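note to self: dont lose this again. the chain is below, predicted strucutre after it. 368 aa total, dont forget to put it in the shared folder this time
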Amino acid sequence: MVFYLTIWSLVALASFFDVTTLSLKKKKMIALCIFSLSVVLGATRNQVGTDWEQYYYLFVHNTTFADYFEVNTVYETGYMALNYIAHLISDEYVMLLFLMTLIICILKYKTFFSIAQYPLVVLMLDFSYNIGNIFPVRQNIAIAIILFSVLYIISKKPVHFTVTFLLANFFHRTAIVFLPAYFLFYKKIDTKKLLVFLILFSSLGFLFSDILTSYISTLVTNSFFIEKFIAYSTDVDNSFGAAADSTTRIITSTLKKAVVLVILWSLKKKAERVYPYYNGLFNLYFVSNLLYLFFIPIAPEIALRIVPYYNVFEYFLLASLIGLSKKWWIKILILLLLLAYGLLKYVTAINAFYDLFVPYNTILFVLF
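---
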């Protein structure tokens, strides 16, 4: 655990440069160093992280085009193609890990420095939420692509957005939930609508929780998606980590979301004046809360799989709060609060599957 806290501390210290007069060029260099560290750690890890066995088995037992595209049908085409490309370069599993981490870090670097008001703070929050992007699975690639697609929403390029959106779905089917994002981004949500949507989705979630889990299996037979739904709806403990009580985690997570939503909503009008993308990003972030409220009573695993596509914009909104004041000490205070929040998320993410993350094993040596 000391290793993880050490690298997080370095990223945390780097975030302070966002409240200084350091040039953008130098900030980009700092971010490149952090992302490079993530790529190295992600590529050289060994038997550590979630889904290691499944992904490793898939890679080492398949080599040809036929193996990936004619025999295997469980994983998405995009992920299969990435495995095949990695094999063309090298038969070592490290190549696939390198490509996965590299793709994610490149897309996030481009997005952070394109739309974030405080890119190094956003990087710190992203690092905290995702354990430094060191342990990517195919959904992480899809989320990174979805994040990048927002650049095309902002620039109003629907064709580019559609292509990018479809690409994300080739890596993970759950990316389909981001389909309405282009139309939601420029909407205006007043307080009345916000409350109505929150109450409606929360009520529907509890109303249909028993109905859906009891009868959905009778609606469609031999369906991959229905089988997944049934599995997810009964996999509560694994959804929130074997080391924690699922009910406690759900309650804690719900309260956290409520507090963050209230803060971001109450400061919305003021934030919009200093951060032009606040309204659009808030709309997308708000959808994450609606999806969470609807699915958490039905199937927590589904909630945790689809919410991240919208919740990722929380980083940008929280970081933008630093710009609400011109006083340097208030900026530092807000940053310190964000660092505390980020550290809490970081430790929680690791502790959820502590035995899978600690110690960090590498093909070079073992770090504790």
